[in-house]
Amino acid sequence: MPLTSVCLLCREMRILWFLLLLLHEALSQAVSRPNFVLLMADDLGIGDPGCYGNKTLRTPNIDRLAHEGVKLTQHLAASPLCTPSRAAFMTGRYPIRSGMASQARVGVFLFSASSGGLPTSEITFAKLLKNQGYSTALIGKWHLGNNCHNKADFCHHPMSHGFDYFYGLLGTNMRDCKPGEGSVFMPAIRTLVFTPLKIITITLLTLAALRHLGLLHVPPAVFFCLLFLAALILSLLLSFLHYYRPLNCFLIRNREITQQPMSYDNLTQRLTRDAARFIRRNADTPFLLILSHLHVHTALFSSKDFAGKSKHGIYGDAVEELDWSVGMYVFIHYMYVRCSRGFSPERIPCGIPPVFLMLS
Description:
Blueprint: H1 3-28, E1 36-40, H2 60-68, H3 82-91, H4 125-131, E2 135-141, E3 165-169, H5 186-212, H6 220-248, E4 251-253, E5 256-259, H7 267-281, E6 287-292, H8 313-338, E7 355-359
Parallel strand pairs: 1-6, 1-7, 2-3, 2-6
Antiparallel strand pairs: 3-4, 4-5
Helix pairs in contact: 5-6, 7-8
């Protein structure tokens, strides 16, 4: 065999061995799968964070995410209301297609005993990631239903939609959940309670005057019935206001109630600690974590470390506490996942970076 042919053969063999080595290396390496951490604020205005131009609210952690990542300036929501927009967010479909849009004025779930919810036939991105071996969790607000036929079927519960773990509020944060903050039901109360009471009062005074003037004979039973009806209406109102909070404003871990009624004391800190525990448990596995904050939906609240510290009252306090929580999530992920083999406070690119999304 000519010398040139031998050299060409040797060269081809070396290239073949090199390609086989690269193929072996590629097959031996597991496909890297990033963690997904979705941070959702509730009713946060686009002009509130500093990265969107605010000069008086302090949001350094949200601003840092925007500076080091991508800041979106154009966005369309499927609905201006909680329930339908969250259904669209979870499924990527218009809420009317899943039966989560309503023609009624309210348009959201107001009671934990509501029988409606996100159908189990819907495919959420949590289900897709769980099928790919991800650990999945939702911490915070759900607001997409709970039960179908009885209080124990949990057919609309987060764990029926691809989440391995849930801790938070099945409904929503409302003024009725915080004593002294009023009620979202005031328009209905005016119509169903105050108006009938006014009519009953006017009727009683009119009948009493006519009877006193001798113009009309009114049996005492009529006054008794009207007074009884007024007392019944007031009793129903007081019972509703008294029992609404414990029956609808409670924290639940998976399927077990942990606090009823819900307390706002250090609530953001408790949710943050629970997220930290989930991240720590899953530091060695890919995971999806959705932090669905109760901030800054009314009722507004903040812990004593943030109360009275902002320039915008209780709303500003809530926004700045939300920003603190965002910073803690980023810090916790770096500490337990990316830099678990020797964490440094410096921005060291160790491990697979997570995909952080800040939504409002």
